[in-house]
From TrEMBL:
Pfam families, alphabetized: Response_reg
SUPFAM superfamilies: CheY-like
Name by which UniProt lists this protein: Response regulator transcription factor
GO biological-process terms attached to the record: phosphorelay signal transduction system
UniProt entry keywords in alphabetical sequence: Phosphoprotein
Organism of this sequence: Pedobacter psychroterrae
Domain Response regulatory: 10-125
Residues the record lists as 4-aspartylphosphate modifications: D59
Matches recorded under InterPro entries: Bact_response_regulator, CheY-like_superfamily, Sig_transdc_resp-reg_receiver
Length: 130
C-alpha cells in the first residue's frame, strides 16, 4: 500500500525527554502519521480538544505530573474516555508497572524497539489492547 493512500491519523505524544520525543516524532511522521509533541502535561486537555488525536503516547514520568494521573483524567472525561493511550516509561517495565484503576491500551518500556513501537501503535489503532 502506498503511503499516499494511507488515512492520516493524529497522534499526540507527551514525553519530557526531547531526544525521545524527536525520535518518536520522526518515526511516526515517516509512517505518514500526523504528530504533535509536548514535553509537559500542562494544558493537555486543551491540546487534545484542538488536535483531536486518534492515539495518545503518554510518558508516565513527566516533570509536571504522573502519566497515570493523566490517564485517570482522560478516562474520567466523557470527551476523552475512548481515546486510545499507549503509556511509555524508562522507570517501569511491563512486569512492575502499576496503572491503578485505569488501564492504558498498551504499555512500552524504554528503551524500545522501533518496530515494536509501530506494531503496538498499529494494533491499538486497530482496536487491540496489549
Amino acid at each position: 500500500m502506498a503511503k499516499s493512500s494511507k488515512v492520516y491519523k493524529n497522534i499526540l505524544v507527551i514525553e519530557d525527554n526531547h531526544a525521545i520525543l524527536d525520535v518518536i516524532t520522526l518515526i511516526l511522521q515517516s509512517e505518514a502519521y500526523k504528530v504533535s509533541g509536548f514535553n509537559k502535561s500542562v494544558d493537555m486537555m486543551l491540546h487534545i480538544e484542538k488536535i483531536k488525536p486518534d492515539l495518545i503516547i503518554l510518558d508516565i514520568m513527566l516533570p509536571d505530573g504522573d502519566g497515570r494521573d493523566l490517564l485517570k483524567q482522560l478516562r474520567s472525561d466523557t470527551k476523552t474516555e475512548n481515546i486510545p493511550v499507549l503509556m511509555i516509561s524508562a522507570r517501569y517495565t511491563e512486569q512492575n508497572v502499576e496503572h491503578g484503576e485505569f488501564k492504558p491500551n498498551g504499555f512500552l518500556a524504554k528503551p524500545f524497539d522501533i518496530d515494536n513501537l509501530l506494531d503496538k501503535i498499529e494494533g491499538i489503532l486497530a482496536g487491540k489492547t496489549y
